Amino acid sequence: MDRTALAEFLRRRREELRPEDVGLPSGPRRRAPGLRREEVAALASMSTDYYTRLEQRRGPQPSEQLLAALARTLRLTEHERDYLFQVAGRNVPPAGTGGDHVAPALLRVLDRLQDTPALIVSELGETLVQNTMAEALFGDRSRFTGLARSEFYRWFTDPDERRCYPEADHDRQSRAQVANLRAAYGSLGPRSRAGELVDALLRESTEFARLWERHEVGKRFADHKTLLHEELGEIEVDCQVLFTEDRSQALLVLTAAPSAEATLKLQLLGVLGNQRFGHPAHDFRQPILGRDPAHDAAERRGA
Question: Which residue spans adopt a coiled-coil conformation according to this UniProt entry (predicted)?
Answer without folding.
Answer: none
